[in-house]
Specification:
The complex is a heterodimer of chains A (384) and B (376). Chain A is 52% helix and 18% strand. Chain A has 384 residues and is an alpha+beta fold. Chain B is α+β, with helices and mostly antiparallel strands and 376 residues long. In chain B, helix 7 packs across helix 8 (251-281). Classes of the chains: A alpha+beta (384), B alpha+beta (376). At the A-B interface, helix 2, strand 4 and helix 9 of A face helix 2, strand 4 and helix 8 of B.
Chain lengths: 384, 376
């Protein structure tokens, strides 16, 4: 078979400067989509990020706790009761309070942080950085500080001494968690220090008998669904028992229903998409206009409409590929920067990148079809 | 110029002009929506403070923002009237609590406002009128703008606030936006029972200055007279603090701000594209004008005028759409995202500026070019 001339490719390469500009435009659109998709997912991820730091298969929480971001504790006894169930290997309490008052050690400004209290002897932490510091946390008035807390919280490196909820605390280590819609930073401390940090000057003081989460590990090899049923059967109705997946799902649903994040960033991604269509159409239409004689010649020598359409679409796809590739590389920088500024985890997964790639392709294909109409209108006779 | 070239250019191919204007309108509508969200956020920031009746406010040194206010000793509120220029000072209480959905039993976060019924320190006449109803212990007034997913709350219903049974005695319209999606108002006594906090600790001290007194000076005097366990802020200072918190400290400010930025950028790019394409398509016509002896300036003027007409038309078309959309979104989300005149004007100026820049950049090529070349 005769080797085909890669016509679309040659047309695009004909003017490298213009090609670079065109790809730049599409890259810009792809970057907008990346940023919006990144924020959208990052914000949702952020709401359940804390669960990634906890080593458990299932969780006990108060029946009335409607979101991980609110403090609604339940009796600690439920955790011990759950242990009676044969399928439960371990059950650890986790105390959480949203109102820790952190004083920026540098400028003395006050900020709200979340504090997680763990029993250093039965730590439910899945974070090696936290686990490595359990010994230090047993000492009074020590905390671990989230490195990724917003920058206005000030210095947080080990050794830092500052006031937390009206008391002096010493930072003995850091860990990596990040911010979310509610919390600008997180502290981890021992159960005893938790009582100090979580104490509101006015409300009834917190008690270790009231915990926020019970972290369960289930016996390996058992059917998790049945194990959970067993635990549910034992425990009174003031708590619910959810598998990790159920809790994540429930939490995400809460935020999807209660915040306009989806709408806002969906809209943002749509804007990127529309910008992309415009830019790509612009590029292809100019290309077609400039080459209208060549295209007419192709028709005159017998190329069918289908081939011309394909030719334009091929150019569109090539542009999409280049634009996406450049966008992908730059999004790495963009995500790193946004991550650092906001503390929101901007994660790029294969799935998410594929969504953006799909959008980039559709975007260029749509504009390709629009531009091709111009090419098909080229009447051979008229042009010469 | 005798021939209205700009207008004729636009009406020559009506379909194309319509598509161009529609494309621009689309992005302008999106910009309006994003700006609406951002404005709603900024309004929400001071939604409570805007409705409280005070000139100077006493807050805790631990005050972070409305959701995390800390408390002050009630004694400071009593001390305040002894300072020169202070007409009155009343305590105000506010704390987040949770409201039990009467049917599902699920809890929802609410702001619980407490005040002495005889004070009712609000700028909302409705709330001042209903305040005497709160003299009955364990009664509350419910904000109508509380989100529907909090469940029904008709007059006379017995609901559960934190762990206490309370009766709905009436309603008012406030709406705290993003601060919290539900709000109830109650007497100081009931507030204390619900939250478990003693009335010796107030959330705010609301100070009214004597007629003619300067709030800033009264604030300085209060600052000097009262111990360090309170902070004294004027209304302006408090509102600036709230807005600053929401726009820079919370993730919301960043999210909404970036939305507006991307939307305006998109509007700019699309408008530029539309105008630049149109100019490129008519390069020969412009060259002809040049060849006919029109000065480059007047050719540029045609282009600029054409861009201005197109931009204005796109803007004009987008305003009613955005208004309706804002109204619908506002109703669906219970957020104040409705269109405002200043916002409409800001976008108009932006669009016209972009059109001018696009026209200017595009005509640079025309100005420099030799008419003969342009036919190339």
């Amino acid at each position: 078979m005769r080797r085909r001339v890669p016509l679309a490719w040659r047309i695009l390469c004909h003017d490298p400067r213009r090609l670079a500009l065109s790809v730049g435009g599409i890259t810009f659109a792809v970057l907008i989509i990346f940023a919006e998709v990144g924020f959208l997912n990052g914000l949702y991820d952020g709401q359940v990020e804390v669960l990634d730091k906890i080593d458990g298969d299932a969780f006990i929480l108060s029946r009335v706790k409607f979101s991980l971001a609110v403090d609604m504790p339940f009796p600690r006894r439920r955790i011990e009761q759950a242990l009676a169930c044969d399928s439960v290997v371990s059950a650890a309490p986790l105390w959480i309070a949203g109102g820790a008052l952190w004083r920026n050690p540098a400028d003395r400004s006050l900020h709200r942080m979340r504090v997680l209290g763990i029993d250093p002897g039965a730590s439910p932490s899945a974070d090696p950085e936290v686990t490595a510091r359990l010994e230090e946390l047993t000492r009074p008035d020590t905390v671990l500080v989230d490195r990724r807390s917003r920058s206005y919280l000030g210095p947080r490196e080990p050794g830092v001494v500052t006031e937390v909820s009206r008391r002096r605390f010493r930072g003995v280590g850091t860990f990596d968690l990040g911010t979310d819609l509610v919390f600008n930073g997180t502290l981890v401390t021992s159960d005893r220090s938790f009582l100090e940090i979580a104490s509101d000057a006015d409300a009834s003081p917190p008690r270790l008998e009231r915990v926020e989460l019970g972290v369960l590990k289930l016996r390996p090899g058992r059917d998790p669904a049945r194990a959970l049923e067993e635990v549910r059967a034992i425990l009174p109705r003031d708590v619910v028992v959810l598998s990790r997946e159920e809790l994540v799902e429930r939490e995400l649903t809460f935020w999807k229903v209660n915040t306009p994040i989806g709408a806002m960033f969906g809209l943002g991604a749509l804007m990127g998409f529309v910008v992309g269509i415009f830019i790509c159409f612009q590029v292809l239409a100019t290309e077609v206009t400039d080459q209208v004689r060549q295209l007419a010649t192709l028709r005159a020598i017998g190329h069918e409409d289908g081939r011309l359409l394909r030719l334009v679409l091929q150019q569109a796809v090539i542009l999409a590929l280049f634009g996406f590739a450049a966008g992908l590389l730059l999004s790495e920088l963009l995500y790193g920067w946004l991550d650092g500024v906001t503390g929101i985890h901007m994660r790029l997964t294969v799935g998410r990148a594929s969504v953006v790639f799909g959008l980039a392709l559709v975007m260029c294909a749509v504009s390709g079809c629009l531009a091709a109409r111009k090419a098909l209108a080229a009447d051979p006779a008229e042009l010469f | 110029m005798t021939v209205p070239f700009a207008w004729r250019n636009l009406t020559q191919n009506r379909a194309r002009t319509l598509v161009a204007a529609a494309g621009m309108s689309f992005t302008i509508v999106l910009a309006f929506v994003q700006m609406g969200f951002h404005a709603a956020l900024m309004r929400a920031a001071t939604s409570l403070q805007d409705r409280l009746d005070f000139d100077v406010i006493l807050v805790s040194p631990e005050y972070v923002y409305t959701r995390s206010p800390g408390t002050i000793p009630f004694a400071r509120v009593k001390q305040a009237p002894s300072v020169e220029g202070v007409a009155s000072a009343v305590p105000f209480y506010a704390k987040l609590g949770h409201w039990r959905h009467p049917e599902s039993g699920m809890r929802r976060e609410v702001m619980v406002l407490g005040f002495r019924p005889e004070d009712a320190p609000f700028l909302l006449p409705e709330l001042r009128q209903s305040a005497p109803l709160l003299a009955v212990p364990d009664t509350i007034l419910v904000d109508r703008v509380t989100r529907p997913d909090y469940g029904p709350h008709p007059d006379g219903m017995v609901g559960e606030l934190d762990w206490r049974r309370v009766t709905v005695a009436g309603h008012y319209t406030l709406g705290l936006g993003f601060v919290v999606y539900g709000c109830v108002a109650t007497s100081d006594e009931t507030w204390s029972r619900v939250t478990g906090i003693s009335l010796d600790r107030a959330t705010f001290g609301l100070v009214k200055v004597a007629p003619g007194a300067d709030p800033a000076r009264v604030a300085r005097r209060l600052e000097a007279a009262l111990p360090g366990d309170v902070r004294v802020l004027t209304r302006a200072a408090l509102e600036a603090h709230e807005r600053d918190y929401w726009s820079t400290s919370s993730s919301f400010g960043l999210i909404f701000g970036s939305g507006v930025l991307v939307a305006l950028l998109t509007t700019a790019i699309i408008s530029y594209q539309v105008l630049a394409t149109d100019i490129a398509n008519r390069v020969r016509e412009y060259a002809t004008l040049k060849a006919l002896g029109y000065r480059p300036g007047s050719v540029s003027l045609v282009v600029l005028r054409q861009g201005a007409i197109l931009a204005a038309a796109a803007w004009l078309a987008s305003v009613p759409v955005a208004t309706v959309l804002g109204d619908l979104t506002g109703r669906a989300t219970q957020l104040p995202v409705a269109m405002t005149v200043p916002r409409a004007l800001v976008v108009l100026v932006w669009t016209l500026a972009i059109a001018a820049i696009a026209g200017f950049v595009a005509t640079r090529k025309l100005r420099a070019a030799d008419p003969a070349e342009l036919f190339g």
